[in-house]
Design a protein that fits this description.
alpha/beta; Helicase, Ruva Protein, domain 3; 4 domains; two-stranded parallel ribbon
Length: 470
């Protein structure tokens, strides 16, 4: 093994922020900690909460470096608000060999014996630094006995000792532990923040990646900068010097944006053959079904944002590689239908994790999307009269269907409505026509109460027998 191979460091470690100013997207944390350093109000215990890759361990090391930095603090400051990264203390912490800054993985050191050992060691003064700092990662993994053993030390720690607890699941921590710490919640990063950082790192590596590729990696990272750097590292290993969005799709088994557009076009046109063909091509070309479903959910979400109005700039920021396709679908789908489609994709995503035939489940998902588009929002019985009035006003049905007359309970003559040819493609209207046909018997007058009883006693049971989801 060559010396170069021995010294290789993963990207997320090589480009870990070395100052507070380099931290991306956690200004509420960096600003508070720097003010505490300036005023000398450093707490004895901190709790850093947040999902993976949001900077918890990085922030803990920056705080440890600043309070132990050997460079003199500016006049009027208790501690340097930025570590110098040049003194012996900063360099030892950067290299992970400081005797006074100790990282403990609670996932593998979770028992009461390990915490008792820690309680014994905290009594000793720092060997070289001002403060002894214990960074306990994944602290929620400690046992109840270990938490109880740690409580007294957290409440009254020896002088010159600081605890920094990091967790991805703060809800699993006892309230007694949380109450003894200053808590900071780390946010997921925006896609633009991640793509900007990736562009900076790639530039310093001498590696070129196009705008759509950066956006694609940022969306795949789902708010985690560490994950994004890992993806960039994989791309750098695949391509020598430059890479584009199409190559990234090939590396990670991602469907091209045009495939998402074509599938939603098939939903709109109710073209079952086209939809099944697209899904078959996705599966047989080695694309990851789970990732495809996530991408489809994101596409539907952006369509819903677009229909909500004023979201074009947000769409351009989040997914510029999809923006042109999203615009083509403006006004094609009802907002209510899109909301139901989101629920469908979420439901299928849960099922996909435990099936052996993902193609069949994706085809079923497609059929459910078509149905959501055809029938529109589900019509609750309380909305029936309103919908009938709308259909009558549009000329889809004929007869007396005014809400006021039904509410009065008066006898109103009603004839079975006829479905005009112009409405044959409007299956929402067709459903209402079917409801009216069953609800309006020939001859007898139809009252509001009778229509309601007919709906509950005859129509709904009949629909359930035919298809429960309808």
């Amino acid at each position: 093994m060559t010396q170069k191979e021995q010294q290789y460091i993963a990207l997320y470690r090589r480009w870990r922020p070395q100052t507070f100013g380099e931290v991306v997207g956690q200004e509420h944390v960096t600003r508070t900690l720097q003010n505490a350093l300036r005023m000398g109000r450093v707490a004895h215990a901190y709790l850093f909460c947040g999902l993976r890759g949001t900077g918890k361990t990085t922030m803990a090391k920056l705080l440890a470096k600043s309070i132990n930095c050997l460079e003199p603090a500016p006049e009027g400051y208790a501690f340097p608000v930025e570590p110098c990264n040049k003194c012996l203390s900063c360099q030892d912490i950067n290299r992970g060999r400081s005797m006074d800054v100790l990282e403990i993985d609670a996932a593998s050191n979770r028992g009461i014996d390990e915490i008792r050992d820690l309680r014994e060691k905290v009594r000793f003064a720092p060997a070289q630094s001002r403060y002894k700092v214990y960074i306990i990662d994944e602290v929620h993994m400690l046992t109840n006995e270990a938490f109880n053993a740690l409580l007294k030390t957290l409440e009254e720690p020896p002088g010159k000792v600081i605890f920094i607890l990091a967790t991805t699941e703060a809800s699993r921590l006892p309230a007694t532990v949380i109450s003894r710490c200053q808590r900071f919640d780390f946010h997921l990063l925006e896609a633009k923040e991640i793509s900007d950082r990736l562009q900076e790192v790639a530039g310093r590596m001498g590696f070129s990646i196009d705008k759509d590729g950066l956006s694609l990696l940022a969306n795949m990272a789902e708010g985690s900068l560490r994950d994004a750097l890992g993806l960039l590292e994989q791309c750098a290993s695949y391509a020598d010097g430059a890479i584009g969005a199409e190559q990234i799709q090939s590396i990670f088994g991602i469907a091209a944006p045009v495939n998402l557009y074509q599938l939603m076009e098939a939903v709109h046109k109710e073209d079952l053959a086209q939809g099944f063909t697209i899904i078959k091509d996705i599966v047989y070309s080695g694309k990851e079904p789970g990732q495809f479903l996530k991408d489809l959910s994101s596409y539907v979400r952006l369509l819903l944002l677009q229909e909500g109005g004023g979201a074009q700039e947000l769409i351009e920021q989040e997914a510029p590689f999809l923006a042109s396709f999203i615009r083509k679908h403006k006004g094609v789908f009802l907002k209510e239908s899109l909301l139901e489609m989101l629920e469908i994709t979420s439901d299928v995503d849960r099922q996909l994790r435990s099936v052996t035939r993902p193609q069949f489940l994706l085809e079923l998902c497609f059929l459910r999307l078509v149905r959501a588009h055809r029938f529109g929002p589900y019509l609750a019985s309380g909305e029936l009269f309103k919908k009938l009035e709308e259909l009558e006003a549009k000329g889809f049905i004929k007869g007396e269907h005014t809400k006021g007359e039904h509410n009065k309970g008066g006898n109103t003559a009603a004839t079975p409505p006829a479905l005009p040819a112009s409405a044959s493609s409007d299956l929402t209207s067709a459903l209402q026509w079917e409801v009216e046909k069953k609800a309006a018997p020939a001859g007898p007058n139809l009252t509001g109460e009778r229509l309601k009883d007919t709906w509950e006693e005859k129509i709904l049971p009949d629909l359930k027998r035919k298809h429960i989801t309808v």
